[in-house]
Amino acid sequence: MLQKLKQLEHPVETQPLTVYWPYALSLLAVHILGVLAFFPSLFSWSGLCVGIAAHILFDGLGVSIGYHRLLTHRGFECPKWLEHCIAICGICTLQDSPARWVAIHRMHHQHSDHQPDPHSPWVNFLWGHVGWLLFIDRRHDGVVHFERYARDLLRDPFYFRLERKLMWFWVYVIHAAIIVSIGYFYGLATMANHTQALWLAASWFTWAVIARTIFTLHVTWAVNSVCHTWGYRNYETRDESTNSWWVALFTFGEGWHNNHHADQRSAQHGHRWFELDPSWWAINLMAKMGLAWNLISPRQALHTHVEHD
Ligand SMILES: [Zn+2]
Ligand SMILES: [Zn+2]
Q1: How remote is the CA of residue 233 from the centroid of ligand 1, in Å?
Q2: From the CA of 74, which ligand is nearest?
Q3: Ligand nearest to the Cα of 120, by number
Q4: Over the stretch 177-221, which tens digit does the pLDDT of each residue have?
């Protein structure tokens, strides 16, 4: 099995490899700006704290709970207005529009670690981590791809509009501008003068926007790369998915990826007592507040699966 997977080729639709400049340049720009974090003068505790809070909100609520467990797998239901707010949070991680993210991830589940999985690390580790984003995959922009994998989302005008004229990307830019502006006004309120307020705004840009975006990107990408390469397995799935405690720690439970591949619809990814799953806790809290219902737990999901079989 491993021998066969080690020879996995790039998906045919990416051949010959052609750089996808919009993504390549955007990701390069963000990583170059990341150098700012090495300047001690641009560090502030408030910038770091806002960055951590933003990671919890945008990666935890936006990507783990929103993009993944809610929009891709429908592991629970919630009011439409809340679903849209959560999707906006996901956009603030610079991880693509909701419909594209969902379509690519559903394709990954259908073909995981086999052709034509869009991002298997069994092509090579870097390909699974980020390489797949840097090159054109002819499937990802096709109408057929969206029709097949994300029709449910695009029937909603909200998600459809986000696809047009790179609207989702501008949402990311606007959220960054809002964070920097708040940093500036916070600086004006707490510091001696305008120049110091500008420095604080620059610090928030460095830590709460750029460093946080880079961190969020890499820990999310690690679910695709690390959690199909290293770790332990609870279930014998047809792919090479694994559970990784440290990826789970930084992604609010997404690192229990072998559990997830074994039971995709379940909104609960931690299956054993020590597999901490903050996203599942948050979904339960939402349910207690009347903001989520029809939560799919592992037992129910497996039961449903057996019934369908
Ligand atoms: Zn999934
Ligand atoms: Zn996977």
Answers
A1: 16
A2: 1
A3: 2
A4: 999 999 999 999 998 789 999 999 999 999 999 999 999 999 999
pLDDT tens digits for 127-152? 999 999 999 888 877 777 888 899 99
What is the Cα Rg of the chain in Å?
Answer: 20
Output b/e per residue, 170-179; b: 16+ Cβ within 10 A. ebbeebbeeb
* DSSP-derived secondary structure for 98-159: HHHHHHHHHHHHHHTTSTT-TT-TTT-HHIIIIIHHHB--TTTT-HHHHHHHSHHHHTSHHH
C-alpha of residue 122 to centroid of ligand 2, in Å:
12
Q: How far is the CA of 261 from the centre of ligand 1 (A)?
A: 7
Give the separation between CA 207 and CA 94, rounded to whole angstroms: 15
- What is the whole-number distance in angstroms between the Cα of residue 254 and the centre of ligand 1? 9
- For 286, the token pair is 């939402």
C-alpha distances (whole Å) from 236 to each of 3, 151, 241, 246, 261 are 17, 31, 9, 21, 10
CA of 120 relative to ligand 2 center, distance in Å: 8
Across the strands, what pairs with 256?
Answer: 243
Give residue 307's region: left, alpha or beta (phi > 0; psi -120 to 50): alpha
Q: Specify the number of domains making up the chain.
A: 1
What is d(CA 103, CA 118) in angstroms, rounded to the nearest whole number?
11
Q: Relative to the alpha carbon of 260, which ligand is closest? A: 1
Q: How many C-beta atoms surround the C-beta of residue 29 within 10 A?
A: 11
Residue 304: domain span: 2-308
Global pTM reads: 0.92
Distance 41 CA to ligand 2 centre (A): 40
pLDDT digit string (tens) for 104-131?
999 999 999 998 899 999 999 999 999 9
Q: Which ligand is nearest to the CA of 264?
A: 1
The answer to whether residues 261 and 239 touch, using CB atoms and an 8 Å cutoff, is yes
